[in-house]
Amino acid sequence: MRTINKRILLIVAVVVIFLFFTILLAFSMFTNAQEYALKSVNAHLYESGVLTNAGEIVDTNGIKLAYTQNGERKYNDDPDIRASFLHILGDNKGFISGGIQDVFKNELSGYNIVYGVNKSSDNTLNLTLDAELCAYAYEELRPYKGCIAVCNYKTGELICIASSPSYDIYNKPENLDSDPDYEGVYINRLYGGLYTPGSIFKVVTAMAAIENITDIYNRTFYCNGKDGTIICNDTHGEISFKTALNQSCNVAFAQIAVELGADKINEAFHSAGLDISYTTNDRITSKSSIININTSDSKSDIGWTGIGQSTTLVNPYSFLNFMCAIANGGKSYEPYFVKSAVNENGRKIYESTPVDSGITITPTTASLLKELLRSDVSDYYGDYIFGDITMCGKTGTAERDNKLPHAWFAGFSYDDDFPYAVIAILEECGSGLKYAGSAASSVMQELYRKTISG
After folding, report:
1. What letter would DSSP give residue 277?
2. Which pLDDT tens digit goes with each residue over 357-394?
3. Is the dihedral of CA 182, 160, 247, 213 positive or negative?
4. Domains and CATH numbers, the chain
């Protein structure tokens, strides 16, 4: 009898253990069903690891960027559009980190918990980007490496993104991994780039000065072309705060940085949102900008930091966000480009909502910075450079040891009826105004032609 009881207990125990693990497996299958269904081994979506079945991706004007036809993934007919959208869409095999064909594959596949993955998805992912403008910006970048982006500073919608180098997904170069011209080709430089900022950083130093030096607008500085280790681009003589920013005087801004001290510059860097790594609505994580400055540093080190040299590194996405905040009265939304996703019946299955960037600039400071940046263009660069657009902005020529400088332009339209901010970084080419300013101007004028001039 005891033997029978022991056997019954053993059987019951085995059954209980079996049921426990069956329930655990079922729970795991249910809670992770989406992850399992969307893996690259799923033949409904992939063939030999290559994406073949997903819904359409369209730009803000309804232009098809990617779609599936007869079981094959297709892309826009224009090779420039294909190249300019490589980093946005991602390639078929997932080499491009953060491509929306991967991170939005749930919305594109039509997956749901009841029916799983559709054999043929008619879902559509709608972007805020203008495909023709992105292709135009990509051509403005070439042959240099770098990126250009344009954002509506009132809404956070990105209208244009281009990152170079890139390639046509239909014609992938055979020497992609060995040719230095394609170095960093898998990186979207808007989100993943870190660069010495050069003189665009003077906007951060100017913000710190406005908030901490009460008589900054009444002060003058003297520049004889050099101050200790700080070398200026000219001999400016006696110069005001505004003119020092206009003419990008290194000596004046190094002196301002030293007077402010490391803590105030760090505070401004944080207020500008530059030390934030943003994970956007587009499910892309940007790199945070880097500043290395503390109170024990020498005056020379603090001065170099204040003019955007030293070891400071800036991410283009975060600096574009900073420009948007200045243009929009101190507040900005994290720039994004995925607007919505709809199913075959037109029902929205995803909709992006603007997210506050966390930038903390007072309306007064933002207004003063806006006027300074307007003065840069009107009183120094020349309004003619930007055609019919009333622009505000700052150039940067980021010096680097034994290499050509990186060229920067960061700015925005002054007019509320054309509320766009732009960032441009062209690597190893020279003057910020000549290269980045010219590229930014061309892209902004093309956008103006499309939106205002019609």
Report:
1. -
2. 999 999 999 999 999 999 999 999 999 999 999 999 99
3. negative
4. 140-336+357-453 (3.40.710.10)
| Cβ–Cβ < 8 Å for 338, 282 | yes
CB atoms within 10 A of CB 370: 18
Q: Which residue stretches of 121-201 are H helix?
A: 131-141, 189-192
Q: Which amino acid is at 133?
A: L
The structure's pTM equals 0.88
* The pLDDT of residue 1: 56
- Summarize pLDDT for 181-212 with one digit per residue, the tens: 999 999 999 999 999 999 999 999 999 999 99
Burial class, 295, CB count within 10 angstroms (exposed 0-12 / middle 13-18 / buried 19+): exposed
Beta strands in 104-262 (DSSP E): 124-127, 146-152, 158-164, 220-223, 226-227, 230-231, 237-240
DSSP code for 297: S
Hey, what amino acid is at 24?
L
* DSSP 3-state of 199: helix
Residue 4 has pLDDT above 70, yes or no: no
Residue 102 to residue 91: CA distance in whole angstroms: 9
Mean of pLDDT over the chain: 89
pLDDT in the model for residue 403: 87
Q: What pLDDT is stored for residue 39 in this prediction? A: 42
Cα–Cα distance, 454 to 46 (Å, whole number):
42
Q: Which residue has the tokens 């600096």?
A: 319
Residue recorded with tokens 């290395």:
292
Strand boundaries in 317-402, DSSP class E: 338-342, 348-351, 391-400
Sequence-distant (6+) residues with CB within 8 A of 272 are 204, 207, 318, 322, 325, 359, 361
Q: Where are the beta strands (DSSP E) in 366-443?
A: 391-400, 403-413, 420-426
Longest dimension (CA), the chain: 108
